[in-house]
Amino acid sequence: MSKEEHDSTLTRRGILQGAGGLIAAAMLPAKSSDAAVAVTQSSAPSPATARADITGQLARYMVEARDRSLPPMVARECKHRILDTLGAMVSGARLKPGEMAIRYVRAQGGVPEASVLTTDIRTSAVNAALANGMFGHADETDDFEPVTKAHPGCAVVPAALAMAEREGRSGMELLKAVALGYDLCCRFLLALGPDLVRATHRSAEGTSATFGSAAAAAAVARLDETGMRYALSYAAQQVSGIWSWTRDTEHVEKAFDFAGMGARNGVTAAIMVQTGFSGVEDVLDGEHNMLEALSTDPKPHEMIAGLGSR
Predict the structure, then answer these.
(1) Tens digit of each residue's pLDDT, the chain (310 residues)
(2) What predicted TM-score, i.e. pTM, was given to this entire model?
(3) Is 44 inside a domain boundary?
(4) Which domain covers residue 188, as residue numbers?
(5) Count of structural domains, the chain
(6) Per the domain annotation, does 131 fall within a domain?
(7) 39: in domain
(8) Is 24 among the domain residues?
């Protein structure tokens, strides 16, 4: 059997190889104790304090999200998003962006921490997130948030999957991480103003993908509040993406910009902090903060408005 035939067989028959148990667990109905308890809403900060420590409020929310039960409707929606993204990955793996990603990660090798879907490759969580992310946006069937125009799934889901497989987490932890990643991915763009980001020739999708993926990966890594602060800062340092991808006729760079890059960056940020990296604890506040660096008219309160309720 040729290598191409072998990979095709894996696509049809072994789609959930490696990460399959984790994905299957995430699709099971939640236990009654998990399903019955609604998300606890964080107390709304006053206008006077909202600007003071946005990073801290967000970091605490990220830590608390691990122990907060998902409402049944939210858990169901997360499952749909994961399955939808997996479908996009399967088809995208056989398009040019997917083929290039497979070639790249196969050549890289790496510690076998996580699976590259549709293949026999197990590589580092960072590389797996990159490849699976590029799969996820390759055919443009990934999900889309209409207000910000973010594409959360193609970056957040691969990042969460790679980290969850690396860390041996449960299906419920995967669901909670995906929910958190979607939340912060969109909040970040709301705070920046998506039109303001695009007006400076930057890719709003690439910008938000790193932030959402870092939130999901950091949740799976079970970082404490200080660790979450650092992860947010290392995510901020990696945020990138410019609109020149529109000239990429083969869609490879766009798949990297919208998905693979953000998933890779988010997992990198979480693992760096998990390894012991220290950093800036208030990247969303004070002088030279991320929001002011990336927007001419940021709305910091959007990062924390209605945490846990929208």
Answers:
(1) 444 444 433 344 444 555 666 765 666 565 533 433 333 344 444 444 444 699 999 999 999 999 999 999 999 999 999 999 999 999 999 999 999 999 999 999 999 999 999 999 999 999 999 999 999 999 999 998 888 889 999 999 999 999 999 999 999 999 999 999 999 999 999 999 999 988 899 988 989 999 999 999 999 999 999 999 999 999 999 999 998 999 999 999 999 999 999 999 999 999 999 999 999 999 999 899 999 999 999 999 999 999 887 6
(2) 0.86
(3) no
(4) 63-303
(5) 1
(6) yes
(7) no
(8) no
**Amino acid letter at 243?**
W
